[in-house]
């Protein structure tokens, strides 16, 4: 069987975006009597055409082209997401691996239960609690992610730690759980037993044989979480007053600024599609049994 | 307890080869022995009681403002302090459970009904119906709920009904997917073939023959979804797109008070955050228990 998910999923995202968009257009047309005389599809087509040429439309609220706003916001969001990802991927995998190596011992139960508990909490709840602890009581970290203009990379990072923590917590549970079950399955497999019986050192067995197989499902999970991450960004950026794509969409939605809203959401759709593709590609590179376009 | 003791004293079920066919009594029995389930149930029942009867035993009217005593820290006469309008935070937290515990379960029920019907149809007919509907469902699942909700609420306006419908419909695909895979396994069994031989209609076969046999996975998925529905309702209320003022809802209270936590007024948000956290964790513990009871 050849796994071709990479071609199926992004195609769906396009259609997914079209659904709510067509809807939005209809509402748009009614509310602002803009382009009401044109059929929905024509409007949509011309809008996509312009978008592809870098023209995202004009904001109703700011009376200015949307593109610079979206690009700025996207850059900011990428920074935030990157900080969260850079923290969570290694720590989450490490947590899962440690839990798997201590199956059913207290350490495993702490990691699993703790991970599960923080994963199911809404981001703004963990966000509020973290702000209270680190921002209000301990005063270690700034409570709003608004650094002074022209701040250096390190200062920016300092301001981004607190906003990235709630995202970290939600993702940690998922990643650790996948890594844990992947590890347990791999540890239990015949090739691991073979490797141990060959007399390979335990460290080599873990690194060369177990980890490589265990992490495959984890990578898929990380990729599917980009969709979640975007939803999380809307909340986190609002909570921390951060000028990212999430708060851009939020503000646009509240202000009924449809061109801005549409551009923001389409951008998110593109980011999501790209992330999914990259994940599928990574998956095929890491797993020799799955080759995109193989003849088998 | 006697109700649960009876099934245990019966002879062991004759057909242990099909996993999810354990009698209901046995499921109940293992639920009542599961610490996870009971802890979750206790938390959930606590909040249900608060939602139903809280109004009668809270010390203050949760909506009555008392500007002179605004923002007083927790003390003997106001256990959790007062908010910026002088409203008693303790009373608000207790009564604040009401709206979320109405909206989230209703959304979950809607999702379960819609998802089950859809899942039965696509699982039963398979083929092109399944292909098309499944792709559309996948596309919907790719968009974060927050984004769908944002768009729908901008288009339709904010009301509890909108929130219920939006969350219900965005969770339905997930339930449909679960039901579909359960139905795919069931439809190959003899009793379905027998129904077909009897010339039973498709509707009869789906809803009378297959449905009772796929109840366990539906129940598990429903309890899991309830946790996510609470997550989603709380988040939407926090964003201002869910439950509307003057409700003492938790998410709403946090969103109207978190702007001031820089000033050290931690009590105006902490207790609401903890309330959401406890409810979400409680429901997830119940879900975990139910899952365990059906899969043992």
Task: Write the SSE topology.
The complex is a heterodimer of chains A (296) and B (296).
Chain A: H1 5-32, H2 40-52, H3 67-101, H4 106-120, H5 123-137, H6 153-187, H7 190-197, H8 202-239, H9 245-254, H10 258-286
Helix pairs in contact in A: 1-2, 1-10, 3-4, 3-6, 3-8, 3-9, 3-10, 4-6, 5-6, 5-8, 6-8, 7-8, 8-9, 8-10, 9-10
Chain B: H1 2-9, H2 24-32, H3 35-57, H4 89-95, H5 97-125, H6 127-142, H7 145-156, H8 160-186, H9 190-197, H10 202-210, H11 215-239, H12 250-257, H13 267-295
Helix pairs in contact in B: 1-2, 2-13, 3-5, 3-13, 5-6, 5-8, 5-11, 6-8, 7-8, 8-11, 9-10, 11-12, 11-13, 12-13
Short description:
Chain A is mainly α.
Can you characterise this structure?
The complex is a heterodimer of chains A (296) and B (296). Chain A is an all-alpha fold and 296 residues long. Chain A contains ten helices and no strands. Chain A has helices spanning 5-32, 40-52, 67-101, 106-120, 123-137, 153-187, 190-197, 202-239, 245-254, 258-286. The longest helix of chain A has 38 residues, at 202-239. The radius of gyration of chain A is 22 Å and the shape is globular. Chain B is an all-alpha fold and 296 residues long. Chain B is built from 13 helices and no strands. The longest helix of chain B has 29 residues, at 97-125. Residues 1-18 of chain B have low confidence and may be disordered. Classes of the chains: A mainly alpha (296), B mainly alpha (296). Chains A and B meet through helix 1, helix 4, helix 5, helix 8 and helix 9 of A and helix 6, helix 7, helix 11 and helix 13 of B.
